[in-house]
Amino acid sequence: MPLTAPLSQVMLPGQHAAPEGPVDLQAMYVMHHAFRRDLHRFRAVADRVPATDRQQWRRLQRRWHFFATALHHHHAAEDAGLWPLLLSRIADSPDSRAVDVLRAMAAEHAQIDPLLAECADGFASLATDGTPEARRALQESLEHAWEVLDGHLGHEEREAMALLQRHLDESDWRRLEREHFRPAYTPREMWTVIPWSQEGLPAEVGRRVRAAGGPAVRALWWLSRRSFARNEQAAFGTARDVTAPLAAERDPRHPTSTRQRRTTVVELTRSIDVAVGPDELFAYVSDFNRAHEWRTEVIESTMEPPGSMQAGSLLREVAVVAGRRLVTYTIVDIFEPPRRFTFEHRTGPLPVSGEYVVEAPHASATQDEATLHYTLRIHLTGGQRLLAPLLTMTAPRTVQTSLRTLANVLEAGRAR
Domain named Hemerythrin-like: which ranges (predicted)? Predict the structure, then answer.
């Protein structure tokens, strides 16, 4: 790849990062800005529209459909074009972390789709038979969607875009735009997509976007912008003007810092003595392919890359909780065999982190005695904080049941 001087990248309100490199990613970050802006407005308007105003909820239902469709098209283009191209470029790279990042991108997309459908159901419910309960449920769904989507976009901006800048050049990006991103939208959709993508941008960035798009984009924007603005006003009302909170979601000077919102952390540590040696115990709990054997809520568990766990391993689990099938992807942060590893969820219903620590229970312990200490932290923000009392009651029981099952499985195997 030819060496090219790094370009100055745009940094928009709410954006986490803008890695330097040879590719001008203005179009990517403009789309991210539009997704964040829309979801911020939906959260704001859901707090203001009465549950009984069915006409307004129908307007919002239609507007949500456009937002979800645009987001789906964007992710589909990345899944079909961008991630496969990057994977092909790093195929011979010793950096296994890069592969994990790209696999996590597609996994996070899969996690977002059900959240969009959940919100769509909420708008549909309020558009037909609005109740205060349905409105509260939608508010919680929108809050959850924001947490997951903003987390994904930030992960993409920090890590995936850095990989793009290292392994692609401007000609690669132009081909991706031509073959995957532009064809994702029909000509009819472009009538709305062009003014939608530029709504709320700083004036100078908007001018650069139109200049880069050429005469056709400038003409479509000029012809469609007023009707788009009227429709936005009808859907969001005064919530359309609430743009300052989006800019304040994150300090651009600290691109990886999170929003300053109240967070409740449900933390618990449970321990269990097991009649096997420390090395055997650690080998079992770090073999995530076997997690479904003892984690009571987990029905499937796999680990990539194959083989032994390592820092950067990507863990996939499928759990059934309250009758719902939930898929979670987790990254191993610290791996210190044969005693400790830490983990953090990258996708899932709740932000979770924790660690496993294996040790001999006391100085005089035999080779067939070990203790497992398991720590779990659930980070709750926004509407999720309402779940804290429930999780405080249920999580310890679930963890303790799983640990007892683990001890029984290992000791039964030793007995045989």
Answer: 26-163
- Closest of 415, 136, 170, 400 to residue 271, by C-alpha: 400
Distance, CA of 357 to CA of 359 (rounded, Å): 7
pTM of the model: 0.62
**Nearest by Cα to 210 from 226, 200, 197:** 197
Residue 262 has pLDDT above 70, yes or no: no
Phi, then psi, of 70 in degrees rounded to 5: -60, -40
Residue 312, phi-psi category: left (phi > 0), alpha (psi -120 to 50), beta (remainder): left
The set of residues, in sequence order, having a beta carbon less than 8 Å from that of 343 and lying 6+ positions away, is 315, 330, 331, 332, 333, 353, 354, 355
In this predicted structure, what is the pLDDT of residue 380? Answer: 85
What fold is seen in the domain 26-248?
Answer: Four Helix Bundle (Hemerythrin (Met), subunit A) (1.20.120)
Element counts in the chain: helices (H) and strands (E): 12, 7
Q: How many alpha carbons fall within 13 Å on the CB side of residue 382?
A: 20
* pLDDT at 350 > cutoff 90: no
Nearest-angstrom CA–CA distance, 69 and 66? 5
Q: Are 57 and 126 in contact (CB under 8 A)?
A: yes
Q: How far apart are CA 36 and CA 15, in angstroms?
A: 9
Please name the amino acid found at residue 224: S
What does the domain layout of the chain look like in residue ranges?
26-248, 263-415
If one compares 254 and 413, the residue with the highest pLDDT of the two is 413
Most confident of the following: 23-32, 180-189, 334-343, 374-383:
23-32
DSSP-derived secondary structure for 186-241: -HHHHHHHHHHHHTT--HHHHHHHHHHHHHHHHHHHHHHHHHHHHHHHHHHGGGGG
Question: Fold for domain 263-415?
Answer: Alpha-D-Glucose-1,6-Bisphosphate; Chain A, domain 4 (3.30.530)
**Range scoring the smallest mean pLDDT among 107-121, 236-250, 311-325:** 236-250
